[in-house]
Amino acid sequence: MKEIFKSSVVAVRFSPEYNLVYLTWDGPLTFDKYREPFEFLINDFKLEVNGIVSDIRKQGIVGPDMRNWLQKEATPKSIARGLRFFYVVSDANVFKQYYVNTIFKMLQDSDKIDRKLYKDFDRCENDIKAGILSWKHELDLAS
C-alpha cells in the first residue's frame, strides 16, 4: 500500500490489488481541507478507485456545508470515476454517528454505492475487500 496524498488533516493510501483507497483523518477540519483529498482523487489520481475506507475516528466535526458538498458534488463525480463502495470506520461519538447516518440517509437509493458504517477497522477492511472481489467476479461473469 502506498501513500498517495497527505495534508495536515488526512493521509490517503492506495491498495492497487483492490483499487481501494484509505482516508485516515486526524484533527479539526476546514471546508477546504475536507475537500482536498476528494478533489485529488477525482481530478488528479489517474487510477480507478473501486472503494474507499474513511477512518473518521480522529476526524474533526464535519459541518452541513461539507456534507452537502460530498453528497452533491464529490459523490456523483466519484461514481463516474468507478467508485462502488464507501465504508466508514467510526467510534461511538454521537456527532460522528449523526454525520455518517445523515449522509447515508440522504444518499439512500440515489445511487448504486454500497455504504456501511463500522466500529472495527479490520472487519470493515475484510468486508470491503470481499465486496470488491464479489463485484469484480460479477463483472467477469457478465463479460
Q: Would you give an account of this structure?
A:
The chain is α/β, with parallel strands linked by helices. The chain has a single domain (2-142), classed as Transcription Regulator spoIIAA (2-Layer Sandwich). The protein has 4 helices and 6 strands; from the N terminus they run E-E-E-H-E-H-E-H-E-H. The protein has helices at residues 31-44, 64-80, 94-107, 121-142; strands at 2-6, 10-15, 20-27, 51-59, 85-89, 114-118. Strands 1-2-3-4-5-6 form a 6-stranded mixed beta sheet, sandwiched between helices. Strand 4 (51-59), helix 2 and strand 5 form a beta-alpha-beta unit. Helix 1 (31-44) runs parallel beside helix 2 (64-80) and helix 2 (64-80) packs across helix 3 (94-107). The longest helix has 22 residues, at 121-142.
Secondary structure layout plus pairing:
Layout: E1 2-6, E2 10-15, E3 20-27, H1 31-44, E4 51-59, H2 64-80, E5 85-89, H3 94-107, E6 114-118, H4 121-142
Parallel strand pairs: 3-4, 4-5, 5-6
Antiparallel strand pairs: 1-2, 2-3
Keywords:
single chain; 143 residues; alpha/beta; Transcription Regulator spoIIAA; 6-stranded mixed beta sheet; globular
Largest sheet features:
6 strands, mixed
Q: What proportion of the residues form beta strands (DSSP E)?
A: 25-35%
- The coarse silhouette is globular
How many helices? The count is 4
Low-confidence stretches: none
From the 3D structure, determine the CATH topology.
Transcription Regulator spoIIAA
**CATH architecture classification name:** 2-Layer Sandwich
The overall strand count is 6
Averaged pLDDT: 90
